[in-house]
């Protein structure tokens, strides 16, 4: 039986102080205390990945005032842990396209969106991200951050 992955877009968000300071936004989920992650969300059937990126940022952090710095060249898939998989039916995991974006100077993050997904956010140095985020996202984040670092962005 083949696995079914939800198409998804994710944003590695640099603060507006980039490139003078390199800080990445992570946010704590409202449904799992202590679960920090990059903003992400599903791609609708009629959407291209960039349209989905801007829509998801608006829905999750209250702004899509970003500039795209880079796009990860491939799609990255991961399986949900068993406890989450039961809640995410009919998907076994997610297939994600990652973007590195920079907040514009006038961008204001507002987590009190129509359907809030996060309770708080913070900016951390790239080398601290893996210590802060959910365990099952660490291998993916490590791969994505390594790519953007190797490409000279982080």
Structural class: alpha+beta
For the biggest β-sheet, the strand order reads 4-1-6-5
Helix tally equals: 4
Q: Major sheet: size, sense and barrel closure?
A: 4 strands, mixed
The radius of gyration over CA amounts to 15 Å
Number of strands: 7
Overall mean pLDDT stands at 94
Question: What is the percentage of strand-forming residues?
Answer: 25-35%
In whole angstroms, the N-to-C terminal distance is 39 Å
Low-confidence stretches: none
Q: What general outline do the C-alpha atoms trace?
A: globular
- Elements, N to C (H/E): EEEEHEHEEHH
Could you estimate the helical fraction of the residues in percent?
10-25%
Overview of the molecule:
- This protein is an alpha+beta fold.
- The chain is built from four helices and seven strands.
- A hairpin with a 6-residue loop joins strand 2 and strand 3.
- The radius of gyration is 15 Å and the shape is globular.
């Amino acid at each position: 039986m083949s696995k079914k992955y939800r198409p998804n877009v994710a944003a590695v968000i640099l603060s507006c102080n980039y490139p003078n300071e390199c800080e990445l936004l992570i946010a704590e989920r409202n449904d799992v205390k202590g679960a920090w992650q990059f903003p992400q969300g599903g791609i609708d059937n009629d959407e291209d990945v960039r349209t989905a990126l801007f829509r998801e940022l608006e829905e999750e952090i209250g702004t899509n005032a970003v500039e795209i710095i880079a796009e990860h060249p491939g799609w990255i898939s991961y399986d949900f842990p068993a406890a989450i998989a039961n809640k995410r039916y009919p998907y076994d995991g997610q297939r994600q396209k990652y973007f590195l974006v920079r907040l514009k100077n006038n961008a204001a993050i507002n987590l009190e969106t129509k359907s809030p997904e996060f309770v708080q956010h913070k900016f951390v140095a790239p080398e601290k991200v893996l210590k802060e985020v959910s365990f099952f996202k660490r291998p993916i984040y490590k791969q994505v951050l390594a790519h953007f670092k190797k490409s000279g962005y982080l």
